[in-house]
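Run log // design_07
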């Protein structure tokens, strides 16, 4: 005998077949008189028989048939109130609540610059830097009463030219400028210079400037004899070689007034094509003469010619002494 489970499977197959045959008859009857899409008249399947359209494209064609996609082609109008005077106007149907009438549009208020007082800025590069004005007022004496007038351009250029003269012409460093104008942060002071379009020195130029102002000393070569020497008139001078020490002792015996490495003279280095600072070894004030002590191994003839040219242009007399160990000096 068959089990209960097997009987249930057979009854399910029989019921499924009968149900499938029933649905096939219903679909065949619908296909004889199907519903159609109202746009393309394509017949709809039994499962979409309640839809009006066969696809999304047909739906869009029907629903957007009277729609105006370009606002300029929309000629429909509506009555609204002017947002400024309250007058009723006939405006486009797409107009918003902030629409103005023609009279209010004609009476448009002109806007003037807050900093130069003009309708159109004559120098927009200055007016755009208005955030810099408080710093210029606090540190450099910028006149705030000039704001709103054309005099602001003259006042701005006065501050800028003043800083250019001190930084480039007088060779003042940014650190000294920050101290002079009581600015606590050197980095922010550099940002002010950048905002004023003042170009800054390169690293080599800064080093040369520091040497020229006596803030940076030339490095000492430990190979050569060096140290401090007391002159005949009780001055302390620094020598960098045994040649310099011997020459200083000779001047002490003659009781000649002299200075060592006291001058800073700019000269053009024709080999490196840059401006450098020359520090003469000896300066004799009464004779107004510069003396350079060199050995054949440290002498650069072209460099010395460049220095000699600069010395004579400044009105100094010049003497070069080339010493060889154990021999008499050659001039």
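design_07 sequence
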């Amino acid at each position: 005998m068959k089990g209960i489970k097997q009987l249930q499977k057979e009854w399910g197959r029989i019921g499924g077949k009968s149900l499938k045959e029933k649905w096939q008859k219903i679909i065949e009857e619908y296909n004889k008189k199907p519903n159609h899409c109202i746009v393309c008249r394509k017949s709809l399947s039994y499962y979409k028989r309640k839809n009006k359209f066969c696809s999304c494209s047909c739906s869009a064609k029907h629903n957007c048939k009277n729609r105006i996609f370009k606002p300029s082609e929309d000629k429909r109008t509506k009555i609204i109130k002017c947002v400024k005077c309250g007058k009723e106007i006939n405006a486009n149907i797409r107009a918003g609540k902030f629409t103005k009438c023609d009279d209010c549009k004609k009476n448009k208020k002109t806007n003037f610059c807050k900093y130069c007082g003009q309708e159109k800025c004559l120098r927009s590069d200055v007016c755009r830097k208005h955030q810099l004005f408080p710093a210029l007022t606090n540190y450099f004496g910028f006149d705030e009463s000039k704001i709103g007038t054309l005099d602001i351009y003259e006042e701005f250029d006065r501050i800028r030219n003043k800083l250019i003269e001190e930084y480039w012409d007088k060779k003042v460093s940014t650190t000294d400028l920050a101290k002079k104008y009581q600015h606590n942060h050197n980095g922010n002071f550099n940002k002010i210079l950048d905002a004023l379009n003042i170009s800054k020195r390169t690293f080599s130029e800064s080093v040369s400037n520091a040497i020229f102002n006596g803030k940076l000393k030339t490095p000492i070569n430990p190979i050569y004899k060096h140290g401090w020497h007391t002159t005949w008139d009780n001055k302390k001078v620094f020598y960098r070689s045994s040649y310099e020490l011997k020459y200083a002792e000779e001047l002490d015996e003659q009781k000649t007034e002299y200075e060592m490495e006291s001058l800073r003279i700019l000269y053009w280095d024709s080999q490196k094509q840059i401006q450098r600072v020359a520090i003469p070894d000896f300066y004799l004030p009464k004779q107004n003469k510069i003396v350079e002590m060199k050995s054949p191994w440290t002498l650069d003839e072209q460099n010395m010619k460049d220095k000699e040219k600069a010395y004579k242009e400044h009105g100094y007399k010049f003497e070069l002494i080339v010493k060889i160990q154990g021999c008499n000096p050659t001039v």
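The radius of gyration is 48 Å.
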